[in-house]
Design brief:
The protein is built from eleven helices and 18 strands. By secondary structure, it is α/β, with parallel strands linked by helices. It folds into two domains: 3-309, FAD/NAD(P)-binding domain (3-Layer(bba) Sandwich), CATH 3.50.50; 328-382, no CATH class. The termini are far apart. The structure holds flavin-adenine dinucleotide.
Length: 388
């Protein structure tokens, strides 16, 4: 078969969610990935509560091999901030097992898996050309081929803005105690953080932040690994992540972009799995609606409208991230984070999907006067002493 309603390029969370949703709606779907599954993908494998809810809704199943975590420890710039117990849960997995389960679900739903690479799309004829020379025709194309999206490049000339993109380094270390807390270190990279995720069978450790502010991310990673007694033997890998580099027009013509290809990574947490799942499903729903109406050219507008809540959240997160990452705010942030259990709890509730960014922002604004007071209070007498 070479004729499809939808061709999906990439079978990560976004592509697998799109292919599963479209195939279950009765559409003819091809799912193209350059890898044979199971394949691994560089990622912390942290699945937030909101990502888990999306997974269950889309696939109607539980993800495989999840470790449930409710203990967290936070540090910033070498200082201990807080140990949190009994927080809303976050889950740990490996992308090897998670992505394999999603790919299998898409195939079981009826999507045709093809191992190949995207090479080009002729919109006039609906022809997708793959690297092997094979051609497929479709009414709509979904690009879910990650941050270096070849589909995005074909549409816009480049897949991301190098001034805004994030970059992360990661390694796998031996497992530690299964109940060890998830550890986050703000400032382990500039405008970013470090993570130490204990899981069954492995410990994933990484640092990530805005690339343009971290010309020497390897040194930041080495410093971070030193904290855990891990030396030069560690195998370190790197990958870009669209840390706040949202594509406001998520496609063009009959092409829809989702997941990392559309820049849908949270600019504070670096979380991308949940938005990839949601956006993939939204792209497929918009495609179904447009195809049922016999107007494939309307799919992009329908998809963009569905994406609005995610775009709004990412915009808000981008506006408030300076509170966490800016050097000017460092002292204030450390004091506020140590002093206010409410803010820490709200942030964990956001990750769990219990509140959204507009709610978090309004709670933050309500508390801002007391944060400022807490942060500036000890500094005021010193200033008075030095002023003329
Ligand atoms: C170091 C690091 C740690 C991270 N940790 C977390 C975390 O703990 N939690 C979290 O939620 N997010 C995390 N993220 C972000 C998360 O990994 C991504 O946001 C998520 O994988 C995006 O899903 P996706 O489906 O858009 O793309 P991907 O998961 O990257 O999948 C894209 C797929 O497209 C295929 N592909 C690429 N190019 C082509 C081509 N030309 N032709 C055919 N196929 C192609 C690839 O083989 C791949 O299978 C992390 C990212 C990094 C870099």
């Amino acid at each position: 078969m070479t004729e499809f309603d939808i061709v999906v390029i990439g079978s990560g969370p976004a592509g697998a969610a799109a292919a599963t949703t479209a195939a279950r709606a009765g559409l003819r779907v091809a799912l193209v990935d350059r890898h044979v599954f199971p394949r691994d993908k560089l990622c912390g494998g942290g699945v937030t509560g909101r990502a888990l809810t999306a997974y269950r809704e889309i696939f109607g199943a539980e993800p495989p091999e999840l470790d449930r975590k409710t203990r967290f420890t936070f540090h910033a710039h070498g200082q201990h901030l807080a140990d949190l117990e009994d927080m809303p849960a976050m889950y740990m997995t490996t992308r090897l097992s998670l992505d394999n389960a999603m790919h299998a679900a898409a195939c079981a739903a009826g999507a045709l898996p093809l191992q190949d690479r995207f090479a080009g799309f002729d919109e006039a004829t609906g022809t997708v050309t793959l690297k092997s020379g094979r051609t497929l025709t479709c009414r709509l194309l979904i690009g879910a081929d990650s941050v270096k999206s070849a589909v995005g490049r074909a549409l816009f000339g480049r897949s991301f803005d190098p001034g805004r993109i994030g970059f992360a380094l990661e390694t796998e270390a031996p497992p530690i105690a299964p109940d060890a807390p998830v550890r986050i270190d703000f400032g382990a990279a500039d405008w970013g953080y470090g993570w130490h995720f204990p899981k069954s069978g492995t410990t994933t450790i990484g640092v990530g932040g805005i690339q343009s502010r971290n010309p020497d991310m390897s040194t930041a990673m080495r410093r971070y690994l030193d904290l855990f007694g891990i030396g030069a033997e560690a195998k370190i890998k790197g990958h870009h992540l669209p840390f706040g580099d949202v594509r406001r027009r998520p496609g063009r013509g009959r092409v829809l972009l989702c997941g990392d290809a559309a820049g849908l990574v949270d600019p504070i947490t670096g979380e991308g799995i949940g938005h990839a799942l949601r956006s993939g499903a939204m792209a497929a729903e918009a495609a179904r609606e447009a195809l049922e109406a016999g107007r494939p050219e309307t799919a992009l507008a329908l998809y963009t409208a569905r994406l609005r809540p995610i775009h709004r959240d990412l915009r808000l997160a981008r506006r408030i991230r300076w509170l966490l990452f800016s050097p000017v705010m460092r002292r204030l942030f450390i004091r506020a984070f140590r002093g206010t259990g409410g803010l820490r709890h709200d942030y964990m509730r956001l990750l769990a999907g219990e509140i959204d960014y507009p709610q978090l922002t309004s709670r933050l604004l309500r508390r801002l006067p007391s944060f400022l007071w807490r942060g500036l209070k000890p500094a005021l007498p010193q200033r008075r002493k030095t002023s003329p």
